[in-house]
Each structure stands twice: as structure tokens, then as C-alpha cells.
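so my prof wants the structure for this chain in the C-alpha cells format not the other one, which i didnt know existed until like an hour ago. anyway here's the sequence
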Amino acid sequence: MSGHNKWSTIKRKKGANDARRGKIFTKIIKEILIAAKEGGGDPDTNSRLRLAIQNAKGANMPKDNIERAIKKAVGSEADTYVETSFEGYGPCGVAIFAECLTDNNNRTVASVRSAFNKHGGKLGTNGSLSSLFERKGKFTINKEGISLDDIELDLIDAGAQDFEIDDEILTITCAKEDFGSVHRKLNDLGIEPEEARLKRVPNNMKSLDIDSSRKVLRFIEALEDDDDIQNVYHNLEISDELADELG
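here's what i got, hopefully its the right format
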């Protein structure tokens, strides 16, 4: 399993505790809010909202929470969020890309800059890491009752590039351009992903010793704990030893 997917697996396991689940719900609700405000509250005609609802269900968010978020988004007192991102290097030269949804850009800039400074990182300019990350589609599926042999060829025809299995979780990767076609093929096959997103996948990984890796991960977790930050991507190689320690 790749270092990138090892980190995703570790985060998924950590997300099982109540405190972390609350953070996850907060971020998903923001996705629902901005999707519904921009494209309306009907998921049948709003593909971004439909995807956000699917991810909410995959995270076991209660139906009432989802409905309240949609209702709030289309109301007159809906919060206004702006999408922004930050690029730079964390401790030990690890590349960091943070995607944000914020209702106060000044607060977010100050918070992110403070985190970089505190942990020995350095913020860069927008686009400075464009060659280090590639946007790809990622689908996380509970493979219970699913035979990869039965669906692999259909998904490859739809654009799937890679399949990885960790315990009962199947992760499918595709090019950004094929995200829609792979998603539709999964629906045709009656498979509902726990998560379906466009993610930034590092082209090259950076290997560090255990102590340095811990230092980097403390910085990443500090960013992920910021409610304004939706996603944090990095190119730290998660060794088997580190994964065992964190898992």
C-alpha cells in the first residue's frame, strides 16, 4: 500500500473517536452548505451537493444534520464561505497543500501562517507546488460482499487507474477527467462509496526518519484541527514502522 494511502487509512481509523468525528462533521457540513448555496438544495439537479451528501452518509452523519445544513444554505441567513488554499513546506522540507473553506479570510491566513511558523515551516505562493501534486479521483469503498474480480474490468473501462486493498477497504484511483465516469459506473454497479472526492496526490514522496516524521505529522494534525481547513495534502512517506506506531 502506498504511503499516501497509509495516511488515509490512519486518519480513517482515528476518525472513529467522537472528538475526531465532530471535526469531520464540521468540515462535511461546510461542503454541503457551499454546494447547496451555489447550486440549490436539490441533489438531483446539483451534482456537487449530491456528492457532499454521499460523503456525509459515508461518514455516518445523521440524516437530520444533513437536512438542517441544506435548509440553512438555501435560507436568507446562510453563512458565506470562500474557497482558498495555501501551499508551502512543513518541517524537514515536506510539501504541504491545504484547502480551506472560510467565512473570514483574514482569520484563516493568520491561523495558517502561525501554524507554519510555529512548526518550522514556510508558506509559499499559490502555484508553487503545482508540479508536486496532481488532482485525481479517489473512491473509498467497503468491499464487504464485493469481488474486485467481478468489477475491475468495468471500472478500468470507465477510467480507473489503480486499485488498493487494506483490510476491508478498497481504494480506487482515477484521473481527474474520469472522476464522473468512474462514479457513474460505480452507481450502475450498485456500489455506493463511503467517500468520493477529487484529491491532490503527490507525484513524489519524501522519506524521513521516525522522529522527523512525527514532527511533520504533529504539524499536519495541527492544520487538520483548524475548522477553516478542509483538507491537508502532503508528500511524507509513511513507513510501515510509522504506520504501525500510529495505527
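also thought this was worth mentioning. The longest helix spans residues 18-39.
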